[in-house]
Design a protein that fits this description.
single chain, alpha+beta, 14-stranded antiparallel sheet, five-stranded parallel sheet
Length: 1033
Amino acid sequence: MPPKKAAAKEVPQASALPSVEDEVELPDGIGPVEDPPFNYAIIHVVETSFGVEGELPPEGGEVRPLREVKPCQLMVAKFKSDPPPDDQLQRSTVVIDREELTSLAESEGGGSLAKGLRVRVQRERDVRRRRKINDARRRAIAIASGEEAPSHEEPHQGVDFIVFLMDYPSASEELDEAVTEGIFDLPDSWVSACLDGQTVIEEQGYDAASPEVDAPPPERHQEAIPTPEVLTKLYAAIHDAEVGTGLSNCTICSVHDCHALAVIAQEEPAEGEAAVADSVSTIGAAFFEKVLSTASVEVSRRLQFAEWMKGIKRHIDIPVHQGSPLDTRLYDRLASAIDVSHQDVPVLLHCLCEQVAATLGGDARDVAGVSGDAARAASAEAGGEAIIGSESELDLLNKFLDGAHEQLLLGDLPGQGFHESSAPALSPPDVGHAEVAFAQSGPMRDGTLDGLEDGSLVLPYLDRASCLHAGDTLPGAGSMVDEVQRLLSHVRFPGIRRNGFPQVAPKTAAERSAMRNRFYSFMPGYPIVEVERLRILHEFENLLESAQPERSWNLRDRVFHERIPSSLLVQVLLDAIKQEYLLDTKYDERHDCLLVALHCRALPGRALWHTWRGDLLAESREEALSSTAPLCPEPTFNDWWQMICKKTMGDTDKHVEDTFCPGVGGPDAGAPSLPDVDDKCKTEPPSKILRLDARQMGYCNILENTLLPADGSIVFSTSLKRGLSETFPKPGTPVPCTAEGLPLGAEGEVSSVEFTAPPQNELKSSRAFKEGVSFGIFTDDAWAQRVTELRKARQARDAQRAEAEAAAAAAAAAREEAEAMRRAQGLPPAEDGEDDGAAEDPGPTGPPPEPVPSSTTERRLEDLRFGHFWSAFADGARCTVRMHHERLWYEEGSTLYDEAAARPGTNFTYAPASGFLVQVFSDGVVHQTWPPQVRSAAVTMQRASSSSVPAPGGPGDVEVARTVTPLGVVTRELLSGRHEIYHPDGTRVFRNPPLTELQSRQERVRSRGASVEADFLQDLLAAYTKLQTWQSS
């Protein structure tokens, strides 16, 4: 191969911009002609230098010459060496190099290269698009006039031309420049090609201590070409880009084994200028074909993605709240009305729905969406009555509801209705959507408590909602049971409201009856009910055998059957799935019913692995039968291809024999010929899609391992995954390839290279179930962060020591070199203190060596792994145990500790269903806190029984926390912030909060929605202020 300077001389100057031709006007009588589709792509190639060994020189020698091959220079020289056609638009491939961009930037007034690239690409696009539109209009005119229409050739795979962008951007600064200029939004497809391969490195041997000895011959070895920094940064920028932008849909492909072309170029050395030009053209064409064959596959897929996205009819935007924090007082008030031990998912969901409805509906006092202050100002200007503030309205509403509730329970005398009661009538204020009319859904209707249908005091055991919430009322005397039942009526589950059934029953009732009667004659003497029972059990056996083929099933011994009322079926199924069983269903047309089997697999070895995938566009069987399409986030091109298309195509990344236009860029070049691959996406686009990034919110996976020990317990290990941190292989990923750049299989045949996208978020947990108790262990994140800090500090110290050792070694080498030079000059060795020009020994400046364990009981802190143990009981109580690492058991600043001398303690926490919290620390201290609902009830009761002025430690100032030390010292913390300490000898110490502390405490309690406690603190604050004013006067 000739030197690179010879090839550089052949590169001509940048050509001028093409001109846009005038638009062809349509004559009268010829209707409008639709503009033909137009697409183009940019293939970005970053320059890479390959070192290859040439042939032995003719005059002989033992060392092959090492030559440098630069593909971008060769491809540009090949393109510019071809004779230009009469019409430049006949070329379907356009090559743009840095020299042309520099010329364009200077012509635009000294702008950036990105600005020059924008001008060049937009002009090329406009010229070719106008030519295509004019050709379509000329054909329409010719057809209308009866003339022969000019020939028209549609571009293969829908690409009209391809731009080869050579070695720009090639640096991180240039990439930022291109992103700012919006270059990635210009083309329909952007593909960056990473030239991958091996290069020959030559290292010169030299012995500084012995300059008189001849240097050894240089050593050569092969190394992989490092990935250019700009492609690494572009890879990160693609994943960080916002979904829907041009940058997020760009991709990078690796062109493997490019060094093979450079080696082939050295097999026949060229002689003479003509031979040199032919060699450059041949090598450049080979690199062109190599890059185009790889990048054009991505271009074709990118166009498929564009067509797929056009099939989406509706994009749903997720509203983002901006401004002040949302008002959650209604949610807090509704949730605090129900005891914590009675709160479950339906209760909290109801409170949340009511808060959302009230927020979306707006405040009742607001005027047409105007804020409360603006509404009050408008009312004042209109001369109307002053609008009561929000707190006053809530107080008025609470008084009305309290009076109505008492009137309902105590004021209804025999023979009198509620509205005929002698109690004074109360006119309710404007109540929002959250308040339910008490006359319709009070806790007692016709003398019957909610949940009791027949007026008795017996509730069905299967009616868990009535058993749990019997007597629970919401503000306004609303029934919690009614609200829970309303929420349960919207639950979707196989078998509920024909969910999972065929849309139309395949057989009528008469046909099903005839089918059953044909079978009865073969079993005389058996009751019909028994026959049907055995028949259904047989269908269940078939269902379970298909789900668990590793074992056989015999359900004939199942003699116990329970009839569940249809109104309670949802609660029973919801309670059953809490045990995390596997679910399988089967439709039985004999009875027009759905068989639902909840089971746990018991494989040989008592181990089980199964997975659930909530993939993008993945529909369950129930969703496929229903008319409701699933909602999914919006994908980018790369994760669309890797996670959606490949899943429906199996082994789809097949490489086929690609065909290319003859003479790339020559006068006979037509439209770029993209490979006619078989990897067409078979997934239909959804009808609607959420404007959320699928890389963050999509591709949810649950991987669960189940172990069934012999003691009857069940152990689950679950891995939750969401999103993708990488959507396509990193550039330069090494894979075994052939000389043509195709991946090799096990036997040498062409096969696919599987890419596994890592998740963006992953959470792993393990838990066990036995006899109604569940427990598990998870990692202590606080200690893990501490270990990370310890490890980073140790690595920093190691780096400092290594730097100090390197400096000391360099100083020693300098001294040895100086001594060698003195010996070579015949001088005597330098004496101590003599200035010989060598650097003085700086001494040990690094940190001391790291201590290592000297005994079997010593351990390093960064080797410890702490976790949380939790246990949940059947009555709703929970307890957790973790290492109390906040209390140091080792010396401050130490990295080791001796297990024989000290060990870390534990922190035990127990939380019963009532809400009380008990904590036991490693030093023996016991700390207890009271739940909010207990505190609020105590405040109300104490204040109702006393009329004294609020004071710290007085009525209403209830205890919120208590601490007991091992020596018997008791510390009480009250609601006001007052602290009382009781010593074993009878000494009592207390401290009252100052005014500023009381104010901040009242604001903090009010923000949590605890209105009863906040009202007491407000009264206490008013008494404090009044007392302070009196004392100052």
